[in-house]
Amino acid sequence: MSTATDPQPQTPQQQPPQPPATDPLLTLCLVIVGALVLATAGYMCLAHPSLTGPIATVAGALAAAVGVAFAVRRR
Q1: E strands present in the chain
Q2: Is the Cβ–Cβ distance between 45 and 53 less than 8 Å?
Q3: How does the average pLDDT of the chain come out, rounded?
Q4: At CB < 8 A and 24+ separation, what contacts does 65-73 make?
Q5: Contact 44, 55 (CB under 8 A)
Q6: Fewer CB atoms < 10 Å away: N or C end of the chain?
């Protein structure tokens, strides 16, 4: 009996890592919270015009932070 024809164990091809899938419930919660924050900021700007400047400053900083977070996550 000869064992010269034993098959070699096959190793599976390595796949590139897949990005984590976004949970639909998390996305829905983020959209709802974002809409509520925008609605609150809009109401504050209409009801208290003197707060428009500070609200715009904070909104700009938050938009920049969200943009940086998305840019870092996409890499």
Answers
A1: none
A2: no
A3: 82
A4: none
A5: yes
A6: N
Q: Phi/psi of residue 73, each to 5°?
A: -70, -30
**Residue 2 located in a structural domain:** no
Enclosing domain of residue 60? 24-74
20: amino acid identity, one letter: P
CB-based contact 41:55 (threshold 8 Å): yes
Report the largest interatomic distance among the alpha carbons of the chain, rounded to a whole angstrom. 94
Number of domains in the chain: 1
What CA–CA distance (Å, rounded) separates 47 from 42? Answer: 9
pLDDT digits (tens, 9 = 90+) for 31-44: 999 899 889 999 99
Q: Whole-angstrom Cα distance, residue 30 to residue 8?
A: 51
Nearest one of 40, 39, 44, 33 to 66, comparing CA atoms: 33
- 35 located within any domain: yes
